[in-house]
Amino acid sequence: MSGNPKNAQGANTMWGGRFESAPDDLMTQINASVDFDRRLYAQDITASKAHAEMLVAQGIIPAEDGGKIQAGLDSIGEEIEHGKFAFKHELEDIHMNVEARLTEMIGAAAGRLHTARSRNDQVATDFRLWVRDALARSDDEMRDLQAALINRAEAHAATVMPGFTHLQSAQPVTFGHHLLAYVEMLGRDRGRLADCAVRLNECPLGAAALAGTSFPIDRQASAKALGFDRPTANSIDSVSDRDFALEALAMAAIAAMHLSRLAEELVIWSSAQFAFIRLSDGFSTGSSIMPQKRNPDAAELVRAKTGRISGSLVALLTVMKGLALSYAKDMQEDKEPVFDTFDSLSICLRASSGMIADLEVDAEAMAAAAGGGHSTATELADWLVRELGMPFREAHHVTGSVVRAADQLACRLDELSLAQLQAIEPRITAAALDFLSPTQAVESRASYGGTAPTQVREQVRLARERFL
Ligand code: ARG
Predict the structure, then answer these.
(1) 3-state SS class at 170
(2) Could you tell me which of 112, 73, 89, 71 has the C-alpha nearest to residue 28?
(3) Closest residue (by CA) to atom 3 of ligand 1?
(4) Which of 348, 332, 341 is nearest to 314 (CA)?
(5) Any long-range contacts for 56-59 (C-beta under 8 Å, 24+ apart)?
(6) Mean pLDDT value across residues 424-451
(7) Which residues contact 22 (CB under 8 A, 6 or more apart)?
(8) Are 210 and 236 in contact, with CB atoms under 8 Å apart?
(9) How far apart, in whole angstroms, are the C-alpha atoms of residue 439 and residue 349?
(10) 262 neighbors 233 (Cβ within 8 angstroms)
(11) What is the band of 16 on the pLDDT scale with cuts at 50, 70, 90?
């Protein structure tokens, strides 16, 4: 950062006309956003090109100047891409850095670009374009994670594991069914993403500072050139609205919360105490002091990054709260939380896909655990209702006595003999024993969306149709 462009009094050349002295260094520091908003450079150049083209088409600026502006903006884009652009703090932000460079390159014609425009509608347009691209990338990454989950679900449609409530063994389920739960969550995340992409897709360009402009601009044309569905309807709202960023952050916060739950399960399942899965070497780390350790650091970091993502949502909500219309410089604080969120969400989604695709499943450990914790007690209660016509509450009570007996004998429910069961309820027959095995229990839950392997295979087929 160097070369402070100043007028004779040392004031900023972009807006310093009425100033008699240069800004304080601290003013420059607190004001400068170019260190982070340079990430908007491609969007800024694209939007400026569309604006210049419209100004020429409307006869507002001469075609010759328009041509110079287009060529100059293209060269600036290349300079930035090749790391040859000297960003200057004194020029505050990406918008004024680009415009000042354009003036260096093409002279006075550059001054015509800002006709019928303000940085207020400019930044709102650039930022919408950036968020729109970020949403499209997230959608792809979410689809990739769904694909990884669906593939593993298909392979493990019949792999029995304990299903949990309160993290206590509840009823046996299949691993494929459990993974498909995350496919549903990601499907809703993608639905929220698509909703917010629709509302985002209106073009603020031409709202100018806040009130519109006296120049005969064509906002429909600018909107169309930038791939927006239509221009925004109210110029004041156009420059003061950041709902598109908030909605994107809210979507990301919910998605990150989902990923943190998956990450937490990977941590639990890969622990020595559970040992249901083994994360690949590629997604595990060792300890520098304990040679036996395999740590699930990637999963832990996915779990942790949820904190900064939901923090970003709260940060921007707090920036926007109570801001009088229309634009205020407070809104410059909108960008870092959004950039950080999409960087974090992206690495979390990609790391989750990698962990899911690579993990090894210990089906025996899962099956052994599935039989523990008397997880088929509900099966026995259902059998008593179905076969003996017992009211469910009574069946629940009888089954409770059976569980107590198994506890006293320190055995699993499917290890009790018929005689032991009949000592509790004489009408129980050998047929009931079948329902005490976790595999049988799982196969019997074939209701729509249930855990039976037949259902899981059907839901895998439907998920591919719905999401991939
Ligand atoms: N860097 C500013 C931002 O991000 C651009 C808009 C500045 N507008 C203004 N009136 N000072 O919000």
Answers:
(1) strand
(2) 89
(3) 332
(4) 341
(5) 57/218, 57/221, 58/215, 58/216, 58/217, 58/218, 59/216
(6) 92
(7) 4, 6, 9, 10, 11, 12
(8) yes
(9) 33
(10) no
(11) confident
For residues 257-279, average pLDDT: 97
SS3 379: helix
Q: Categorize the per-residue pLDDT at 312 as very low, low, confident or very high, splitting at 50, 70 and 90.
A: very high
Any idea how long the chain is?
468
Ligand 1 atom with the shortest distance to the CA of 329: 12
Residue 287 annotated to the active site: yes
Average pLDDT, the chain: 95
Residue 10's pLDDT is 61
SS3 letters across 205-262: CCCCCCCCCCCCCCHHHHHHHCCCCEECCCHHHHHHCCHHHHHHHHHHHHHHHHHHHH
**Residues with Cβ within 8 Å of residue 283, at least 6 apart in sequence:** 296, 298, 299, 351, 354, 355, 358, 359
Report in angstroms the alpha-carbon separations of 16 from 7, 10, 12, 90, 98. 7, 9, 5, 11, 17
Question: Tell me, what DSSP letter sits at residue 115?
Answer: T
CA geometry: angle 440, 442, 448, nearest 5 deg: 130
The catalytic residue among 89, 114, 240, 287 is: 287
CA-CA distances (angstroms) from residue 444 to 307, 379, 455, 460? 40, 9, 10, 18
Structure tokens at 231: 């221009």
Residue 202: strand, helix, or coil: strand
327 Cα–ligand 1 center, Å:
8
Q: What is the pLDDT of residue 1?
A: 44
pLDDT of residue 383 exceeding 80, the answer is yes
Q: Which residues contact 340 (CB under 8 A, 6 or more apart)?
A: 308, 312
Can you read off the two tokens belonging to residue 294? 């395999």
Query: Of 45, 233, 255, 192, nearest to 129 (Cα)?
Result: 45
8 Å CB contact between 50 and 226: yes
As a whole number of angstroms, the distance between CA 271 and CA 296 comes to 9
pLDDT average, residue stretch 343-360: 98
User: Rounded to whole angstroms, how far apart are CA atoms 293 and 267?
Assistant: 13
CB 138 within 8 A of CB 72: no
For residue 373, pLDDT over 60 is answered with: yes
Q: Which of 2, 166, 214, 447 is catalytic?
A: 166
* Contact criterion met (CB below 8 Å) for 352 and 263: yes
The letter for the amino acid at 14 is M
Q: What is the pTM of this model?
A: 0.93
- The residue whose CB lies within 8 Å of the most ligand 1 atoms, and thus the one to mutate among 90, 120, 316, is 120
User: What are the b/e assignments for 77-100, b being 16+ CB within 10 Å?
Assistant: bebbeeeebebbbbbbbbbbbbbb
